[in-house]
Design goal:
single chain, about 280 residues, 5-stranded mixed sheet, 4-stranded antiparallel sheet
């Protein structure tokens, strides 16, 4: 006779189903911060450079403790305590570079924005834009320095940790030597051994270089990086901005080594067994 105090099979099934459902970890919806940066610039009759910047959060989470720094040549201006940038929020501020000590030419201005997640995790993003300074005729001058980038290839499943290399090729098209300065801007999780590199290229010289990078497994496939190349030539400043992406390919490049070592180990093992049994 069945004891009525014992749960039936149906009741046990329902209890187990409820327990399993409650045991499933919930998915976190912390939101995403998407930062969009807009910079507008103009030059007043006095020569002062005016830059109006706007930081837009088009995501679903708040960016906390926002700060920013703008760079033009050797000049910089920092804006601390810009507050929090909530979803659909905008932070506006204005910079004035008074009586700039700049050669005429083209400059790549850089706006760096720092902020934090709710957890306190820091983030940093860059915005690059051109500023033409000086006579209109100077703005039409085209740089004769050719620059080519070879994107770094990172394999997070590599057996041994090695430095990743990216390629840089420059060719001087001027009839005199130039001294370009190359500055690298990499995302979080990727660092270069040298942030700035200095070169000297003689007439028609082509130079190839490899930049050593340290990349950790947090890097995402296709993560963008930026390179700014600047130099002076005959009293004119030239600057160029280049973009690249970090290629991430997950493949066990040492699998063949594993296979060879495994076969050799098995051969040695069976050889030892064979000779021991003969004795």
């Amino acid at each position: 006779m069945m004891n009525k105090n014992w749960p039936t099979r149906l009741e046990i099934s329902i209890i187990l189903s409820i327990f399993l459902f409650l045991s499933i970890p919930g998915k976190g919806y912390g939101g995403i911060i998407r930062t969009k940066i807009i910079c507008r610039n103009h030059i007043e009759q006095s020569g002062d450079i005016i830059i109006e910047s706007e930081i837009i959060n088009s995501g679903t989470a708040t960016a906390y403790n926002v700060s920013s720094t703008i760079f033009i040549g050797e000049w910089a201006e920092r804006f601390d305590n810009l507050g929090d940038n909530r979803p659909a929020g905008r932070i506006r501020f204005k910079s004035r570079y008074i009586q700039p000590e700049l050669l005429p030419g083209k400059y790549v201005a850089i706006l760096r924005v720092n902020f934090e997640e709710r957890s306190g995790k820091p983030h940093r993003t860059y915005h690059f834009f051109e500023i033409s300074y000086g006579p209109d005729t100077v703005r039409d001058y085209m740089p004769l320095l050719s620059v080519f980038l070879r994107d770094p290839l990172f394999n997070p499943k590599a057996f041994l940790k090695t430095n990743v290399k990216m390629g840089l090729v420059m060719k001087n098209g001027y009839q005199s030597a130039i001294k370009p300065v190359v500055t690298f801007f990499f995302p979080a999780g990727c660092t270069a051994m040298e942030h700035n590199r200095f070169y000297t290229l003689s007439t028609d010289e082509e130079k190839t270089d490899e930049i050593l990078l340290t990349i950790d497994k947090s890097i995402r496939p296709g993560s963008p990086y930026d390179v700014v190349v600047k130099y002076n030539h005959e009293g004119i400043h030239y600057a160029q901005h280049f973009e690249g992406k970090i290629d991430v390919v997950e493949r066990p490049i040492y699998f063949r080594w594993y296979l060879v070592f495994g076969i050799i180990s098995l051969l040695i093992f069976f050889a030892l067994i064979y000779f021991l049994n003969r004795e």
